[in-house]
Write a structure and sequence with these properties.
The chain is 46% helix and 12% strand. The chain is built from 39 helices and 26 strands. It has a seven-stranded parallel beta sheet with strand order 9-7-10-6-11-12-13, with helices on both faces. Helix 30 links the parallel strand 25 and strand 26. Helix 13 runs antiparallel to helix 14, helix 13 packs across helix 28 and helix 32 crosses helix 33. The longest helix has 38 residues.
Length: 1088
């Protein structure tokens, strides 16, 4: 084992020549958003001395194998939770063999999803090892990593190219091996000398661009955007090589080679990328870099880009090695005098001030231009002529990046870059008129909300004390008056206290006796959307006890009463701590019918089975990961295996019609929830068209003819006004939890805004345009406080973004819903209470929203993280407890996970049992018939205050990082989630966090797969989907091209994209639309 591949816990092995490093590719499999576990693994690998090239989530076999070959890695580690793993891993082994790299060790894990029989099958096929949950418990996290390193600890075979002249036209595999030999000093001396001589003679006319700058300035994103423009203009006529350098860690020798994950434009054979570690502490660049650059040039690449690690003010080591240098910085460099210390401003040919949407960017642009003018003594030139550009590389097709690219081409053409094919119009550099999603002036919105909630709490405490003193003074006056004693001073004090009570406080105190009276009668009449509803106020137990539906406090003290009214109140009244509605709907439990498996026909059958005994049809839909990532089913193994597995396959409008066939989508008793995010606009357009088509079909059946244009418009409008449900669509949590992100973040948020504007324009008031989700944040590893804080902060971010677009708060806020996970921690007991109170106070006091907009409606799903593959029957116990606290907390809807979801799509029996958990609680559990069972508990009130303050503190932390979007740029939310995930995993594996049946109270080892029905998409369903897709595309081949063109024009011309999608989905498949939007909206750029 190499010296670098040991942890501090292992004894230091004797050095062996060569002193190489073990290199690993880490990734989550294609269409798999569960990035948390592989992130934990790559962190431990790195700290154990491994050089890690992390690719992140949603990676195809092709991408992983290409990376492994180009990086000349010894190991590949992949997590695969979304099914299709057998096909995925076999396809990888086959492709590695085809590329001549069968020696690369492949490792995997799936948290129980990959069952023992499949593990054995894959290991027999050539996978080095698949780790099961039992392996994790036996070995521990570090033990699994040690095992991987030991199995992958070998030095790749000797290079096949022995002379520099043999490099001409070298294959990717040969070039990768040459770089390895140069890095590890195992290349023949004659070969190295030949490269040095060739470099000194400069016979090859290939430009070398050096990109350097401060850490975190966005060098990788900017590099990717420049490559994207080069490839768009030159196609495959120019081959590009990227050498990306990151520092090695001095303590362990490991390195996180983090540039490849940011690259979207490196697919195909025309781009070669190699990540390098400095390996020698204190050096900015590897000592072998000159030879590596020369070898790359000689291998036939027409442009070499060298990206260095983040550097300090005095570093400029890249300059002698390149023909042109680009320095990347951000506006936050401090005082203008700091620019005098930056060495690169003396040498850089071009400067990019990236993240130009930050505060002070215009001043930074002016100051850097002035400094360059002074450094160059170019006082005869204007500041505008200085090669300094404001860029926002995180924005797709940013004008500033394009302006930089144009100037870069002018600089590189004399050095050997091919001449541009056509004249380009000049592009104005990014300026302050290119406003961000949330205006810079509004970046403190979360702290404003936090201050507002704290102020409200303080006001409640002060007003309660005043009310108490006023009541005490009144009692004193009464008692003294009964004894004919003077009370003038007391009356003056009482008047002062009364004046100190706000008008609202006085009104609430005067109304409290009437409130008690109203809830003490047999029934209560209240208004719902302008209609009076009568509700019985008690239910009678078998013992004859009349139990109240809503229990009120028996306080006599006015301070206690007022504090309760201001901070608690009855359900349906501000601040909605106990619930947003006075009562649950009659005959409509919060239960959701959850289904998603195989094709639309099988899932439709499951929906009918689950809802046959209920009046309310609350259909919650899970999509397979192919659909979740906006793709079409395909024959390619790493796609094919996932079709119809862990969710339903939906690719066309025809599929959506089949999915909800037999359900009246406009009935008040029907509500549809669709758990989908990246491609949510397209899937939502599928759904709304399906609902419209239902009404048209009903008209056709009732009238025996087609509706005329006027009648169709009426059906169209009436459908949109009456359809009920929600689509998740929350792109912020997708980035933070590293889930199903498809498009660039700014474009995704724009499309979300387009959906909401379409809802406003068409009067869609009963459908939620976004379900702001904490569930996936929790599933990625966040603790309950982080889940709640990030989710609420995301919700307020949408408020700010939509306000910035000119929408009115009461136009869009009623279309918001929330989605939380309930786990086993105590904070989950008050999740809804805290969320409702913060949201109501913030919306009323900060945004002036009306009562409807103040109501936070939320859905609960029991925790997926607490579903364990060991002792799966115990999962029902956890789920029951989580469901009970959700009902006690007055959630608006609830989904209970099936106990076998740890290893498979749930079977019909396990789903029925999960549904029974809710039915037992709602129908049999007596206290669940009460609407506010948590109120009045000392521990609940204490927890509420503690969790609320913890959330507000997190709001302040996010504000300090530039608000939600600014914090996302620095990876704050992702880092926090990963740290909490790692903490949980460590404690789970070392047993300090007890989990019954997993790390304590262990039963005899059993193979769950032998007793569990494994639900996968069947071969006939997969083939049927491929056939149906082909037929749909063939049928609409003529019209789909025009429809896709119209969608792209809507994007480029700033029109409402969703309005165009509503038309396009009638003739285009999901994958066709996704690909078209990629071209004009940009792909999501993954983060570490």
């Amino acid at each position: 084992m190499s010296q670098a591949a040991v942890t501090s816990e292992r004894p230091l092995a004797p050095l062996r020549e060569p002193d190489y490093r073990v290199r690993f590719i880490t990734a989550a499999s294609l269409f798999d958003g569960h990035d948390a576990s592989i992130n934990v693994m790559r962190r431990i690998l790195q700290s154990s001395g491994v050089e890690v090239i992390h690719l992140g989530h949603n990676r195809s076999v092709q991408e992983i194998v290409d990376a492994a070959v180009e990086e000349d890695a010894q190991g590949i580690a992949v997590s695969s939770y979304q099914g299709g793993h057998t096909e995925f891993f076999k396809y990888m082994i086959d492709m590695l063999t085809q590329r001549g790299r069968a020696d690369i060790r492949v490792f995997g894990g799936g948290g129980g999803v990959i069952v023992p029989a499949e593990i054995q099958e894959l290991q027999d096929y050539g996978v080095c090892r698949i780790y099961s949950p039992q392996d994790g418990y036996a070995l521990g996290l570090q033990g699994m990593i040690d095992d991987m390193i030991e199995r992958a600890d070998f030095y790749p075979a000797a290079q096949t190219i022995q002379e520099a002249d043999q490099l001409d036209g070298a294959s990717v595999e040969d070039l990768a091996r040459v770089i390895t030999a140069l890095e590890n000093r195992t290349a023949p001396t004659s070969f190295v000398n030949g490269l040095r001589i060739a470099a000194s003679e400069k016979k090859i006319d290939v430009p070398v661009l050096g990109i350097t700058g401060t850490g975190g300035s966005g060098k990788s994103s900017l590099t990717d955007e420049l490559i994207l423009r080069l490839r768009f203009e030159f196609g495959d006529s120019i081959r590009i090589a990227i050498l990306a350098i990151d520092p090695s860690r001095r303590k362990s020798g490991g390195a996180l080679l983090g540039d490849r994950i940011r690259m979207n434009a490196i697919e195909g054979t025309s781009v070669f990328m190699r990540s390098l570690a400095t390996r020698t502490s204190g050096l900015e660049l590897p000592s072998q870099l000159p030879e590596i650059i020369e070898a790359t040039k000689r291998a036939g690449y027409g442009l070499v880009i060298v990206e260095t690690p983040g550097i300090g003010q005095g570093d400029s080591g890249i300059v002698p090695l390149v023909d042109c240098s680009l320095y990347v910085m951000t506006p936050e460099f401090g005082a203008a005098t700091q620019l005098e210390k930056i060495d690169m401003l003396d040498y850089a040919d071009l400067v990019a001030i990236n993240k130009f949407d930050r505060r002070g960017a215009e001043d930074a642009l002016r100051d850097v231009r002035k400094q360059m003018q002074r450094n160059r003594q170019a006082f005869d030139q204007s500041l505008d002529e200085m090669p300094v550009y404001g860029t926002m590389a995180s924005n797709f097709n940013d004008q500033g990046v394009t302006a930089l690219y144009d100037r870069l081409c002018l600089v590189l053409e004399p050095l050997g870059l091919p001449a541009r094919q056509q004249d380009r119009g000049s592009v104005v550099s990014t300026g302050s008129d290119q406003r961000g999603i949330v205006p810079v002036s509004r970046q403190r919105y979360l702290s404003e909300i936090a201050d507002g909630v704290r102020s409200y709490r303080d006001t409640a405490a002060r007003q309660a004390q005043v009310a108490r003193e006023h009541q005490q003074l009144q009692a004193s006056i009464r008692m003294l008056g009964e004894q004919d004693k003077n009370t003038d001073e007391l009356q003056q004090l009482a008047a002062e206290r009364e004046n100190a009570l706000s008008e609202d406080s006085q009104l609430q105190l005067r109304a409290f006796p009437k409130l008690i009276e109203d809830y003490s009668g047999p029934s209560l009449v209240y208004s719902v959307q302008g209609q009076d509803v009568s509700q019985l106020l008690t239910y009678t137990s078998l013992s004859g006890t009349k139990v109240p539906r809503v229990s009120l406090p028996r306080y006599q003290d006015h301070g206690d009463i007022l504090r309760w009214l201001m901070l608690e109140n009855v359900p349906g009244r501000f601040p909605f701590t106990a619930g947003v509605f006075p009562f649950k709907r009659e005959n409509e439990d919060p239960t959701r019918m959850f289904a998603g498996e195989g094709d639309a026909f099988r899932t439709n059958h499951r929906f009918h089975y689950l809802s046959k005994d209920t009046v309310a049809k609350r259909l919650s839909t899970a999509f397979d990961s192919v659909t979740l990532y906006g793709a079409d089913p395909a024959q390619r193994p790493d796609i094919y295996g996932k079709v119809g597995t862990s969710g339903v396959s939906i690719a066309t409008l025809d599929d959506m019609r089949a999915l909800y066939d037999g359900f009246d989508l406009c009935s008040p008793e029907t509500s549809v929830s669709m758990t989908i995010n990246g491609p949510a606009p397209t899937v939502l357009a599928f759904f709304l068209n399906t609902a419209i088509d239902q009404q048209v079909e009903r008209f056709r059946s009732d009238n025996g003819r087609e509706p005329d244009e006027s009648e169709y418009r009426h059906l169209f409008s009436w459908t949109l006004e009456n359809v009920r449900g929600t689509v998740q669509a929350d792109i912020l949590k997708e980035d933070q939890g590293q889930n199903t992100c498809l498009f660039s973040t700014d474009f995704s948020l724009r499309m979300m805004g387009d959906i909401q504007q379409y809802f406003i324009d068409n009067g869609i008031g009963n459908f939620y345009s976004v379900s702001i989700s904490g569930y996936h944040i929790a599933e990625a590893g966040a603790n309950p406080i982080t889940q709640l804080a990030l989710t609420l902060s995301n919700g307020f971010t949408y408020v700010e973004a939509y306000l910035a677009r000119g929408m009115g708060v009461d136009q869009f806020a009623p279309n918001f819903s929330f989605f939380f996970s309930n786990g086993m921690d105590p904070e989950y007991t008050v999740m809804g209470r805290v969320a409702r109170r913060i949201w109501a106070i913030g919306m009323r006091d900060r945004y002036g929203a009306n009562e409807r907009s103040q109501r936070l409606k939320y859905h609960i799903q029991t925790s997926g993280r607490s579903l364990h593959a060991q002792e799966m029957s115990f999962n029902d116990i956890r789920t029951t407890l989580q469901a009970l606290i959700a009902v006690y907390d007055n959630c608006n809807s609830l989904h209970t996970n099936a106990n076998d979801e740890a290893v498979t799509t749930p079977s019909e029996d396990s789903v029925r049992r999960a549904l029974a958990i809710q039915m037992v609680i709602n129908r049999e559990w007596g206290l669940a018939k009460n609407e506010n069972p948590s109120q009045g508990s000392f521990v609940i009130e204490e927890l509420t205050d503690l969790v609320e303050e913890a959330v507000l503190t997190e709001f302040d932390r996010i504000t300090d990082r530039g608000g939600v979007l600014g914090a996302m740029e620095t990876g704050y939310q992702r880092g926090k989630i990963q740290e909490e995930s790692l903490y949980y995993e460590h404690r789970k594996h070392d047993g300090s966090y007890p989990i019954v049946g997993v790390n304590m109270f262990l039963g005899p080892e059993t193979d769950n797969s032998e007793t569990t029905e494994l639900t996968r998409g069947t071969e006939s369903e997969k083939q049927s989907q491929l056939t149906r897709l082909a037929e749909f595309q063939k049928q609409h081949a003529g019209s789909s091209v025009k429809a896709l063109d119209a969608v792209q024009r809507a994007v480029l011309e700033g029109q409402n994209v969703f309005a165009e999608l509503m038309r396009a989905v009638r003739v285009c498949s999901l994958g066709q639309i996704t690909d078209a939007l990629f071209e004009v909206g940009g792909k999501y750029r993954r983060n570490m």
